[in-house]
Design a protein that fits this description.
Helices cover 0% and strands 51% of the residues. By secondary structure, the protein is mostly beta strands. The strands form 8 sheets. A 4-stranded antiparallel β-sheet has the order 1-30-29-28, with no helix packed on it. It has a 4-stranded antiparallel β-sheet with strand order 2-3-4-5, with no helix packed on it. The model has no long low-confidence stretch (mean pLDDT 94).
């Protein structure tokens, strides 16, 4: 099996998001605190293009139909058309924390610390781009879209589920079973539920109304310390395998774990990354996992390893769930 390798020319400041292209196995988008958005060819280990048109840290980026979108602390939503030039689609009244793209309607969704969720027609020019604005009760921390569903995680531990075809009100409102603030929410590939991670070393697997499976939560990304007390780390990132529907979590302990949600088991534990895992994503075929190792400042200002992006080849069976024993 090929070994994992480090991408050349990584960001120079905190890596906020990694996104593989939904159909092209090699294209990898990266946003970061150095105000840049980068496009890599992950297979060839090559930086293909980048732009520096944000005026502050970029917190999220997502592929569109003919390029990419990004948003962050400068409150602007930028379209990066054909990876050659940018234009401003619109803006929020607060920092933009999360983006998702719904290809069926050419619709870009943006979530912000201004307590609004907005929908944009990604093809429109100028002020006509905004097609919906929904007020939510708290700051938006994380979002996940899949087909016609959107999950939105709020600062107050609420999770809102929307049908992106109507978008007038959430179809479900949940309070996370985790007692501490949410770091990441990800819809399951089956669209039957979602996985949520928190700052306090826990993950919950939760099913939507109508599903026959039971919700559960578990501890992870912890290290034993003295006096039977665990060192507890935030779980910053979650990504589902596109074929086997297992998922990985990345924590501030610098480790990545692979989980089987149906059998409630950990399948693999990948450790030894230089610092906190800030972002994760599988490519469309599931044969590569991108891992961002980037200090997330839970221990304040201190010397830390440089930011790095690792591409881990995945064998065909590596992410496959174990067969249930009779």
């Amino acid at each position: 099996m090929s070994k994992q390798f480090e991408l050349l020319q990584p960001p120079s400041d905190g890596i906020s998001k990694l996104r593989f292209h939904p159909t092209d196995d090699t294209k990898l988008l990266v946003s970061s605190w150095d105000q840049q958005v980068r496009l890599y060819d992950a297979q060839q280990n090559q930086l293909v293009a980048s732009h520096h048109d944000h005026r502050a840290a970029v917190l999220d980026t997502v592929f569109g139909s003919n390029g990419a979108f990004s948003g962050g602390l400068d409150r602007r939503v930028l379209a990066w058309e054909n990876y050659s030039h940018t234009r401003e689609i619109g803006c929020h009244d607060g920092e933009i924390s999360a983006l998702e793209y719904v290809s069926s309607g050419n619709m870009l969704l943006s979530g912000s610390w201004d307590c609004t969720l907005r929908a944009w027609d990604s093809r429109a020019q100028g002020g006509a781009a905004q097609i919906a604005k929904l007020d939510v009760e708290e700051r938006i921390y994380s979002m996940s879209a899949r087909e016609t569903l959107l999950a939105v995680a709020l600062a107050g531990r609420k999770i809102l589920i929307y049908d992106t075809r109507k978008f007038d009100a959430p179809i479900e409102v949940r309070e996370s079973s985790l007692k501490f603030p949410t770091r990441c929410v990800k819809l399951m590939p089956s669209s039957l539920g979602f996985v949520c991670s928190s700052v306090e070393g826990r993950v919950s697997v939760e099913y939507l109304n109508g599903a026959t499976k039971s919700n559960y939560a578990f501890k992870c990304h912890r290290q034993p310390a003295e006096d039977n007390v665990d060192l507890v780390y935030p779980v910053n990132a979650v990504a589902f395998h596109p074929v086997h529907h297992t998922f990985v979590t990345g924590g501030s302990d610098g480790a990545v774990s692979l989980w089987d949600p149906d059998n409630k088991k950990r399948l693999k534990h990948y450790q030894g990354y230089p610092t906190s895992i800030s972002a994760l994503d599988f490519n469309a075929s599931g044969n590569m996992l991108a891992v961002a190792s980037s200090y997330t400042y839970e221990e304040g200002e201190k010397d830390h390893p440089p930011d790095s992006i690792w591409i881990k080849p995945m064998t065909e069976n590596e992410a496959r769930p174990k067969a249930k024993k009779n």
